[in-house]
Automatic annotation (TrEMBL):
InterPro entries: ABC_choline_sub-bd, ABC_Gly_betaine_transp_sub-bd. Keywords: Signal. This is Glycine/betaine ABC transporter substrate-binding protein. Residues 28-278 form the ABC-type glycine betaine transport system substrate-binding domain. Residues 1-24 form the signal peptide. GO terms for biological process: choline transport. The keyword Signal applies. It comes from the Bacteria. PROSITE patterns: PROKAR_LIPOPROTEIN. GO terms for molecular function: choline binding; transmembrane transporter activity. One of its GO terms (cellular component) is periplasmic space. CDD domains: PBP2_ChoX (cd13640).
Length: 309
């Protein structure tokens, strides 16, 4: 009887210790984004909400392949930016193993493919197949964003698709690429570049998306949905954070507004996120249904107080 009691007590202690360790592992939520302003914003929004709930949110800026490898090694917990199908080539190696789990569609109505200024489009470049015959005007260059985010564009060149095998992919950053687009537009020089929505570029610049890239970017101008992903087992380990992540849904108008705070006003992503949530607190009610603070208080009240609402 005494032996059974001792063993029972030991088992209880082990369970308590495991629960404490699991809780401790959830205190810091480790996220990453690839340096794109839409994902900087949404990750900033998640960070702001998590901090209001009493968690510590850490964000790293990494290339997409590094993000996935870090999640595989359990060095990262959350990625809010899986664009489907545009990022299929990055994710396909991890899908079947179950090492990275897609848990929620957080945006619909996105798109992601090549674009040109309106004056180039009106001159007759409306499709991927029109590019090669105007190689001289384009200086045989395709403008991309951060290294690690242009693999599809690089595949177009590597496979000599559309006769673009001898073109050069210019990699810089989102801001660097858009600065080049604006310089070209002022002089009405020809340029073809990677464009997407949501993004303020769609209202700030007169651009047109090219048809014909379905085999690389998917149909409907690279029409995409964006999904939240986590490392394997994270929802079981951290169910309260997981509940938030499976309820946090954005929309194109909201993201475009918040990205404008970053790109036009020079706001830090977390500051932009707080400004956006203060302007649209109604999003919080659905996101925080059934979600508590880290110490089990009402989540919605805590986040509203954190934002000064």
């Amino acid at each position: 009887m005494m032996k059974s009691t001792i063993l029972g007590g030991t088992a209880t202690a082990v369970l308590v210790l495991c629960a404490q360790q699991a809780a401790a592992s959830c205190e810091t939520v480790r996220m990453a984004e690839p340096g794109w302003s839409d994902l900087a914003l949404t990750t900033g929004v998640a960070s702001t909400v998590l901090e209001g709930l009493g968690y510590t949110a850490e964000t790293s800026v990494l290339g997409i392949p590094v993000i996935y490898e870090s999640m595989l090694r359990s060095d990262l917990d959350v990625f809010l930016g899986y664009w489907d199908p545009a990022m299929e080539t990055y994710y396909q190696a991890y899908r079947d193993t179950g090492e990275i789990e897609t848990i929620h569609q957080n945006l619909e109505g996105a798109k992601f493919t090549f674009a040109v200024p309106k004056y180039v489009y009106e001159a007759g470049v409306t499709d991927f197949s029109d590019l090669a015959e105007h190689a001289e005007e384009f200086d045989s260059r395709l403008y991309g964003i951060e290294p690690g985010s242009n693999d599809i564009m690089l595949d177009v060149v590597a496979t000599d698709a559309f006769g673009l095998g001898d073109w050069k992919v210019v990699e810089s950053s989102e801001q660097g690429m858009l600065a080049q687009v604006k310089r070209s537009a002022r002089k009405e020089d020809w340029i073809v570049f990677l464009a997407w929505a949501p993004h303020p570029m769609n209202t700030e610049l007169e651009i047109e998306y090219l048809t014909g890239g379905d085999d690389f970017y998917g149909p409907n101008y690279g029409g995409a949905t964006v999904h939240t992903q986590v490392r394997k087992g994270y929802l079981d380990e951290c169910p309260n954070v997981g509940k938030l992540l499976t309820q946090m849904t954005f929309d194109v108008a909201m993201e475009s507004e918040g990205m404008g705070y970053i790109l036009e006003d020079g706001e830090d992503p977390n500051d932009a996120a707080a400004k956006l949530l203060k302007a649209h607190p109604e999003y919080l009610e659905n996101w925080l249904q059934g979600v508590t603070t880290k110490d089990d208080r009402d989540g919605l009240s805590a986040v509203r107080a954190h934002l000064g609402l």
